[in-house]
Design a protein that fits this description.
By secondary structure, the protein is mainly beta. The protein has strands at residues 2-7, 10-13, 18-26, 32-39, 46-52, 57-59, 67-72, 77-82, 91-99, 105-108, 112-117.
Amino acid sequence: QVQLVESGGGLVQAGGSLRLSCAASGSIPSTNVMGWYRQAPGKQRELVATITSGASTNYAGSVKGRFTISRDNARNTVYLQMHSLKPEDTAVYYCNAATVVAGINLAWGQGTQVTVSS
């Protein structure tokens, strides 16, 4: 079983920065993909960014160039550095872990709120 614990959300003004962290524990396979998703009120959960254990990354078009996903495999931790935040980035951000092969979901974090004021 895999557990994910997020931290780092908060309130920031438009144009500001935040860094989210997600610490994984439990039986996580050595080859995996971890990612960040977000869900705004009244909207579906959407992909923000993913990173494989081999450090291949993928970003949603809306955050490309502003957000950077990274990971520390030794600490089983994934980060999301967010710059130039916009009010439309306001959402609950969820960490996710999945297998690389077949994309089988392993766990979701509890979510952390990011609020960007205009």
